[in-house]
Amino acid sequence: MTGGCLCGAVRFRLGETPDWVSYCHCKDCRKATGAPLAVFVGAAAAGVSFEGEVEPAVHRSSPGVRRSFCPCCGSPIAFQDARLPETIYFFLGTLDEPEAFPPRHHAFESQRLPWLRIDDDLPRHARFSALRSDS
Predict the structure, then answer these.
(1) Are 107 and 27 spatial neighbours (Cβ–Cβ below 8 Å)?
(2) Can you point out the beta strands (E) in 2-131?
(3) Is the Cβ–Cβ distance between 55 and 70 less than 8 Å?
(4) In this predicted model, what pLDDT tens digit does every residue of 1-51 receive, in sequence order?
(5) Domain containing 40: what range?
(6) How far is CA 69 from the centre of its chain?
(7) Does 125 fall in a domain?
């Protein structure tokens, strides 16, 4: 699996096929993306390689959270949580074949915008869909 940013300067390759895909309705993801929700694909961090012209830039949006983005075009790339160090969560839209990964969960359903309706039978979690040690 491969992916990258809008301008193509950041490219990445996943070592394994992701097996975790989730919508995230939290306020932080809305602020980080400018969208009403985000969709993430979780992959083993050890198998990820960045192969583009530039490495993604990183900012710490909150304690223990790193969000990466393209330093050239600003596209959000991924999210990492110190409580889940073995996994990196890529924004679904950065994958070259996002249609191959339909979401399997809704995270932070408790923060979903009231006008946003997604009619599916997926599990809906009040908070995280990937359990952390303190969640």
Answers:
(1) no
(2) 2-4, 11-13, 20-24, 38-44, 49-50, 57-62, 65-69, 76-81, 87-91, 105-107
(3) no
(4) 999 999 999 999 999 888 889 999 999 999 989 999 999 999 999 999 999
(5) 2-111
(6) 11
(7) no
Report pTM: 0.90
Token pair 């990183």 is found at 58
Q: Is residue 119 part of a domain?
A: no
Residue 55 domain-assigned (yes or no): yes
- Residues 42 and 11: their CA atoms lie apart, in Å, by 17
Pairing relationship of beta strands 87-91 and 105-107 according to DSSP bridges = unpaired
Cβ(51)–Cβ(13) below 8 Å: yes
> Hey, how many other C-beta atoms are within 10 angstroms of the C-beta on 8?
13
Question: The domain that contains 53 carries what CATH number?
Answer: 2.170.150.70
Residue appearing with tokens 């979903």: 112
CA angle (47, 54, 15) in 5-degree steps:
10
